[in-house]
Amino acid sequence: MQKLWGGRFSKQTDTITEDFTASVQFDYRLASYDIQGSIAHTRMLKKCGILTESEESLIVEGLNSIHQDILANNFLFDPKLEDVHMNIEYALIRKIGEVGKKLHTARSRNDQITLDMRLYLLWELKEIITLIRSFQSAILLIAEKNIEAIMPGHTHLQHAEPVLFSHHIMAYFWMFERDMQRFADCLKRINILPLGACALAGTSLPIDREYTASLLDFPGITENSIDTVSDRDYILEFSSVASICMMHLSRLSEEIILWSTHEYRWVDIDESFCTGSSIMPQKKNPDMCELTRGKTGRVYGNLFSLFTIMKSLPLAYNRDMQEDKEPLFDTVDTLKQCLGIYDRLISSLKINTERMRLSLSNDFSWATEMANYLVQKGIPFRDAHHIVGKIVAANRDIMEFTLEELKEFSELFENNIFEVTKPEYGINQKNSAGGTSCKQVKEQIEQARKLVTVHN
Ligand code: ARG
């Protein structure tokens, strides 16, 4: 087969070279974007007088019909033709003849590939943002449904202070809200037309990049052709944001795994999201959460592959950059899959509010509240901390103390101290903005609701 770039070569390409350089086995996924870009490019060439009207319509028709073939699974991508761009261009020439050879005027694969990647990411980003929104709605629902459930809040994985479960789970809402904003922000830098940078220096032909941009709905064009073909920041940026998002999913996974253990039994994961053991008949394993936690590793790995590929690359385009595709595609696929799973997993998660509440019995998570009680009676906080520390050191359930016994620690204790040490009391006292009182959590849910509905 005569290569589309074969003019200066007199020897056949070795198959080892063909195998090693081919990318079509993974970049075929860009086919629709490649065709979309080529159609816009063709229309621009016609507008600028570089193609005639009949040439334009022949090329556009040819590209559309190739697109149909691809969508109908009726197109054979050939690794001998290296990549998705060459496969489509070759098919076009076969389909419409000589005029097909005009498509690649004022264009290089160097600006073409980054156009395809940008179009691909713009599409996927919109999907990811929708997935996050839907998952956030599931978090909101489970928070609302269990608004008053009480659990021990932890620091250092030790009981710290009682909190509302709704407050705890809403922490994730805000984590994913930040992810959503980061994705929306990186979308702005992706949404710029690179086409027209050509190989690296622009072109001597009279093209109109602004027109191509308008056809493809890009709000602007890149400023520097050299930067345009060598820039993969937007892929790194996307992968960084995706890694942060996976980290959030992984932390949630870890908590759900922990909460579903026999020791906790705070949550019950729906059976449809669990698997059994081939040897232990009783097992119901939280594999979806474990795999999400595990897959976070590969998404970080992809990010580091990308960083390493780009490090030290001289300007402008280098073939190394072909290696950006598999890590990026894998990150997109993994993230979308995990977000979709979590939406459904959270929606069907059962909360055992009694077990959660029970975890607070016999613990000392009332200690800060007791110190605040003494502070309100005029004792400096450090002294109050010390007094309560002594009571904790006695290692007894607070309800077993008599008032007289407590008075030995401080004269200021009165009978209402027993009420003060109840988790419900402590929680509702924490009425500072963003705190765990029911009033504050309801307020937070209301704010969150607005964000989710504004977007939809
Ligand atoms: N397959 C290539 C890539 O993914 C497309 C650009 C190739 N450019 C070139 N000059 N060989 O980066």
From TrEMBL:
EC code: 4.3.2.1
Pfam family, one: ASL_C2
Subcellular location(s) per record: Cytoplasm
Highest taxon of source: Bacteria
Catalysed reaction equations from the record: 2-(N(omega)-L-arginino)succinate = fumarate + L-arginine
Domain Fumarate lyase N-terminal: 7-301
GO cellular component labels: cytosol
InterPro entries to which the protein is assigned, alphabetical: Arg_succ_lyase_C, Argininosuccinate_lyase, Fumarase/histidase_N, Fumarate_lyase_CS, Fumarate_lyase_fam, Fumarate_lyase_N, L-Aspartase-like
Classification via NCBIfam families: argH
Family: Belongs to the lyase 1 family. Argininosuccinate lyase subfamily.
Annotated protein name in UniProt: Argininosuccinate lyase
Source organism of the structure: Candidatus Desantisbacteria bacterium CG2_30_40_21
Lineage: Bacteria, Candidatus Desantisiibacteriota
